[in-house]
Design goal:
Layout lengths: L8 H9 L18 H5 L3 H7 L23 H6 L22 H5 L12
């Protein structure tokens, strides 16, 4: 005869905290063997018996609820500066802080040879 499984109350509470459901038929069950039933190899009636313990009665999985939508208040959005760039940047439009055309300063003239080449 097989030796009975040893399950601690603290272990079950920790499992619930870590997202383990009671059984595989629980509405929050996500698969990946994340149920106490699967972890300990119990059937549904054994899980029911397990949760009759006074420290486990009424304890349920800590379900993380993902919102179905994100509500945006237009008044709050318009007050914050936008980080999105509208349109594309034309490199010829880039100027430095003095208002001078930055790219024209970087263009090397090919009309005269530098001194070291002479």
């Amino acid at each position: 005869m097989a030796e009975p499984i040893k399950i601690t109350v603290q272990g079950v509470l920790e499992d619930l905290k870590n997202g383990y459901t009671r059984t595989i038929s629980d509405k929050y069950y996500k698969g990946d063997e994340k149920s106490i039933q699967e972890k300990y190899g119990l059937n549904k009636s054994q899980v029911t018996e397990l949760f009759k313990h006074e420290k486990l009665k009424g304890k349920k999985v800590k379900a993380v609820k993902v919102p179905a939508f994100i509500l945006i208040d237009e008044d709050e959005v318009s007050d914050t500066p936008s980080t999105e760039v509208e349109g594309s940047l034309d490199p010829t439009d880039i100027t430095d802080t003095n208002g001078e055309d930055t790219l024209s300063e970087e263009v090397v003239s090919t009309e005269s040879d530098p001194e070291w080449m002479a």
